[in-house]
Amino acid sequence: MIKKMKERKKEGKVVRRIVGIVTLVVLLIVGIVGVSGYFYVKSALEPLDPEATTEIPVEIPMGSGLNTIATILETNGVIKDARIFKYYTKFKNETSFQAGNYTMTQAMTLDEIIESLKTGKVYREPVFTVTVPEGLTLEQISNIIEKNTEYTAAQFMEKVTDSQFIEAMMGTYPELLTEEIMDGNIRFTLEGYLYPATYSFYEEHPSLEEIISTMISQTNDIVVEYRPILEEKQMSVHELLTFASLLEEEATAQTDRETIASVFYNRLEIDMPLQTDPTVLYALGNHKERVLYEDLEVENPYNTYKNTGLPPGPIANAGKTSIEAALNPTDTDYLYFLADKEGNNHFAKTYEEHLQNVDEFIQ
């Protein structure tokens, strides 16, 4: 009996040891699965490739439910796991996704993808933005690029004046960048063609070509909507942007732009010089608080005191307000205007009225 008790006791130890080993193995497996699951879920909640820039076309058909949308996103390689995207979306109580054609990247977060599907637009947080105000020349824009990117002002100017780059842009935007910009009297070929706006970039180091072409593309998008009016007026894009740039530099308010536009049109109609000071400053190549009489004598194609008609090209980038004013001027008989010390413009039909305004508001 004692022998049997010893044997049972020995067997008990073996069983307990086996149970312990099995339990340890089970716990180890559960732990591995848990940790692996945690890291898998964590990776599925993050962008597939934060540095990715390749655009992926994604089509969401009409009537697509969440299951279908999640599957489409996984199939197209935008997300890692459709199930986790579905659970995440339900957890955040997001609904009302819109059908349509999207261009996404693997750098987008789940929140950015969800926001895109809700608004019908591709939404991403930009790495950085660059704001180009209205009324700037290429040289002034170059300084903004230097402050906001890794490129110098000199590198920017070298690129916007590079003949091969200009030819490439002309090929990409043939209806915007026409042969008119190749006039030998134009100082900078692309002057006035970089639209003033805030630009978002989604990679840390976009090329100069990408930065500049993005601004040209925006100009193209803006001008497209005015093509019917341009055809009706028999006005070229180059003439429009040149005219609008004069308004951008002269005007202080929207109504001023439209009225100043009428003055310029009235002068052009009778072949009278536009006599606008900003063109003289552009001809001189430097900014001055006040244009002197001797400055008006500078021999330069941009000097509208010495030459009739529009200058060879834009003298700055014009915003939408100036573009619209150039196309829709006020109907007036004004031939003269001046700005007082407060920046208010005063208009006159005759030179005598203009001199009275000079006496009253300037001297």
UniProtKB/TrEMBL annotation:
Known role: Functions as a peptidoglycan terminase that cleaves nascent peptidoglycan strands endolytically to terminate their elongation.
Protein family according to the UniProt entry: Belongs to the transglycosylase MltG family.
Any one biological process term the GO annotation gives: cell wall organization
A Pfam family hit: YceG
Keywords: Cell membrane, Cell wall biogenesis/degradation, Lyase, Membrane, Transmembrane, Transmembrane helix
Gene: mltG
PANTHER family reported in the protein's UniProt record: ENDOLYTIC MUREIN TRANSGLYCOSYLASE (PTHR30518:SF2)
EC numbers for this chain: 4.2.2.29
Entry protein name: Endolytic murein transglycosylase
Top-rank EC class of the record's enzyme: lyase
Annotated GO CC locations: plasma membrane
Reaction(s) the record says it catalyses: a peptidoglycan chain = a peptidoglycan chain with N-acetyl-1,6-anhydromuramyl-[peptide] at the reducing end + a peptidoglycan chain with N-acetylglucosamine at the non-reducing end
Keyword Signal among UniProt keywords: no
Stored InterPro entries: MLTG-like
Protein origin, superkingdom: Bacteria
Transmembrane intervals: 21-41
Molecular-function GO terms, alphabetical: lytic endotransglycosylase activity
Subcellular location: Cell membrane
Organism whose genome encodes this protein: Lysinibacillus telephonicus
UniProt main location, coarse: membrane
